[in-house]
Amino acid sequence: MNTTIIFTVTTDLSYDQRMIRICTSLANAGYDVTLVGRELRSSIPLSTQPFKQKRINCLFEKGKLFYAEYSIRLFFYLLFKKMDCIGAIDLDTILPCYFISTIKKTKRVYDAHELFCEMKEIVTRRGIYKIWKKVEGFTVPKFRAGYTVNQPIADEFKKMYGVHYAVIRNIALLKEIVPAEKKEKFMLYQGAVNEGRSFETLIPAFKNINCKLIICGDGNFMEQAKQLVAVNNLQDKVIFKGKIKPDELTAITQQAYIGITLFDDKGLSNYYSLANRFFDYLHAGIPQLCVNYPVYKEINKDLPVAVLIDDISATNITAQLNNLLENEVVYAELQQNCLKLRLTLNWQQEEIKLIQFYKDIFNRKENEELS
Question: Is residue 179 scored above 80 in pLDDT?
Answer without folding.
Answer: no
